[in-house]
């Protein structure tokens, strides 16, 4: 195996949960060229992954026929020995089949599985383990199937040099007027449409509660289209808590370096939460309790003890009602836990 293509061409959070898979594959096959197929909006962060050698940008199923044909041609030219599709759908199955890659592995789901040469039954719909573990199971299958010894990876999965972080912190101090002597708590209220999230009022109560116990600098982060949400949250807390809105950056790599400067990161189940966790920044996450979206299924990549998860009480009709999360109960658990990072 000299060239392997790994496909994870969906959302940022899903892609971040594939990083242990890239680590396992590269550490087990250090001489192999590992290429990731990703959409344009995750390409820049894929370039930060130390276990990815090359990136191919997928124009996605929304692209016209000429663009899709161009992608097939590009993949054919790379002459891959194998492709591992970390999630299966008709688009990915047809793409890899048309590209003529001889070894094609994917989860055994729906009719798409017929176009793969290897299939692994996973039953992901049961959500019995974290998403990153389902991904790792595919890599383990691939390695075993090809008689390759498996090297189990360990986090953190993303890190920056101290001088890079020092430069980024200096830039943030200048941009936001932050106090560099205090811990920095970042809060991301957007969800990217990927999962239900707390209301702005709940986030406001949470920030005020943390501020009452910890002398932090609070940074409200926002991605494209989320600026108004951050501004609204700022309006709710500004009379009681000094906070700064961080809604301008130089792209996803710059945003990621900024997250690496945080002492604590708080968000719903969304891409930035999983980026922060890959950096092993301590995280507090809020998740629905429905089976496909639980804290177990979307468990972050934090090392042990550096993540707290909260969700509404399970029950008919309330699994996705984030209003049922009691912020006072969250603070009772979270404020003493956060003391080790924000004191």
TrEMBL record:
GO molecular function, one term: ADP-heptose-lipopolysaccharide heptosyltransferase activity
Keyword set includes Transmembrane helix: no
GO BP terms in the entry: lipopolysaccharide core region biosynthetic process
Keyword field contains Glycosyltransferase: yes
InterPro entries: Glyco_trans_9 (IPR002201), LPS_LOS_Heptosyltrfase (IPR051199)
Keyword vocabulary terms for this entry: Glycosyltransferase, Transferase
Gene Ontology cellular-component terms listed: cytosol
PANTHER family: GLYCOSYLTRANSFERASE HI_0523-RELATED, TETRAACYLDISACCHARIDE 4'-KINASE-RELATED
Protein name in the entry: Lipopolysaccharide heptosyltransferase family protein
Source organism of the structure: Photobacterium chitinilyticum
